[in-house]
Every structure is written in C-alpha cells, then in structure tokens.
Amino acid sequence: MQNTGTASNGGDRPRRVLQMPALHPALVAKLDTEFHAITLPATPAERATFLSEHAGAIDVLVTSGGIGAQADIIHSLPELRAIVNVGVGFDSIDLDAARARQIAVSNTPGVLDDCVADLALGLLIDVFRQISAADRFVRRGEWPGEEYPLMMQFSGSRVGIVGLGRIGRAIARRLEAFGIDIMYYSRRPVEDCGYTYVADIVDLAGRCNALVVSTAGGPDSRQLISRKVLEALAGGFLVNISRGSVVDEEALVELLQTGHLAGAGLDVFEREPQVPKALFELDNVVIVPHIGSATHNTRAAMIELALQNLTSYLAEGKLVTPV
Ligand code: 8YV
Q1: Taking the model in full, what pTM does it have?
Q2: CA 68, CA 9: separation in Å to the nearest integer?
C-alpha cells in the first residue's frame, strides 16, 4: 500500500511524513514501508543537517506521548500541517505553537481506557494490600521469623477519582465491583453517573481513603494535587496513572517519608524516566515505569488509530480523532 502523495498540500508534490526517532518498532515498520516516512535523527548535530535538507518538505509529523513535539521542532518545519500522536495525552506537544500555525493534532482516545484502568486498580489493590511489599518480605526470608503486619481492606473503602473522563469512568466501573464508595472531582459534575461529586478537591481528599489521579496533564492541571490536597489525604493512598506534572512531587515524597500518607502507587513521574531516589527507600510505594497502556493489544490499537489518522490526513486532509 502506498499512502503518500494522494492529497493536495497546496503544491504539486506528495505529502511527506516525518517520524520522531525511537517510536514503537511496529509503528516504525509501518511508517517506513507503507508511508515512506523519513526519521528525524536523534542527535542535535545530525538533526541540523537533516532539517536543512528536508524541513521544507514535511507535511505531517508522527510522534508519541512520551516523545512529544516541542516548539523548536514545530518551528523548524515550515510546511507542517498535522501532528499525529500515538497516545491519548498530548501535554508533550506544544499546542500553542501548533495552533498558532493552524497545525492539526490528533491523539488516540478510547482505545486504552480499559488497559490504564486495569493498572489503576492493580496499583490500588497493591498499596492497600501491600502485595509488592509482602512479596519482598517473603523473598528476604523474613516469613519464618514473623507474621506480616495487618493492612487496610480495599473492598468497601472510599475512593476519590480526580478527573472523571473516559479513563476515570473505566476506573469507577471497576471500583463498583469492590463495593467502593466512589466520589470524584472534575471541573463540573458528570450527568447521570451515580457517583458523588465533590466540587472541592481538598474536601474530596479529606473524605477518602485513596485518591486516584486520572485527569489530563498539561498547564491547566499542573500540581492540582497540591501539598494541601496531599495533607488532607492524611493516612490515605495516592495512585497516579495520569501525568507526574499533576502532583506536587516534592510534597508527595515528603509526606510519604514522614508517614503522613499511607502509601502511593505511581505509574508516572514529573521527570520521567527519572524517579525521586527517596521513593526507592519506601516500602509502601509501588513504582512502575509508565506502563498504563503497555500491553500488546492496547499498543496495537493505539498504533492502528494513529495510522488511521495519518491515512485520513494524507487522503483527505482530515484527522479522525483530532484533539
Ligand atoms: C503512553 C500515555 O505512555 O497515552 C498516553 O497518554 O501516557 C501512554 O499511553 C504513551 O503515550 C505511548 O506513546
């Protein structure tokens, strides 16, 4: 299949696709063979030479949530018309820079909700029931010497969801099965959802045993989970499957260290792949490397949706799931 060059870009040349370096290998294979995409070199020195040769011919940029598209790359591509993102979050794409030039941006909503919600539940159950910590206890050979301390029951507890979008709702549906008292915070109440809306996030934190962060990242939600919110969560757990930027990480580390918080399950961090070293010392913190959507079928579905966006843009100048 040849997907280049079918739609007009205002000139007589085919549309050209640029891929950011180090995308998922299955995506790279498709972009290479079916879209004849060229790849941005990884190093700044190579990049400068590459851009001086190709920049003026690029119409579409393909990237991922982890890699993003900062203002410098957007500015360096004068003919760029669309950015196709593999990921539902687009906080790593400079939307202001894109909008200023009417560059369309797509993401991959809907196809990863179940997968990310599964991980959120896994982290919740792990922090309440200390599965990872108890596993380490057994591996250290401590079981014959002492009984593992009692812990908090998860079923029947009170959980607050921050951001009741698609992923938040997928988490809530799972929580229902555990008899959880489900509360949520979002900018406005979600109609007909049956969960308790709490308009003040500090109030929400004070009312629940655990907060699950599933709101979108970006400037609007930066440090929404502030020190004040974390202080109100006293004795409770924080689970974050959204973005590290949504949480005041410094306060989180401090309140975990002092025992003010009972524990945390964290898939995302402020400066990935860097994780605050202090967390490594804490047995009540479960740390995973941003694996919310990292299953074979979900990543395949994300790639598929990104390629549908690309195909549609090349053929008709329209994205399927624009942000
Ligand atoms: C991935 C994600 O880490 O979709 C998102 O926003 O955070 C994750 O699914 C990433 O974007 C995959 O490229």
Answers
A1: 0.94
A2: 24
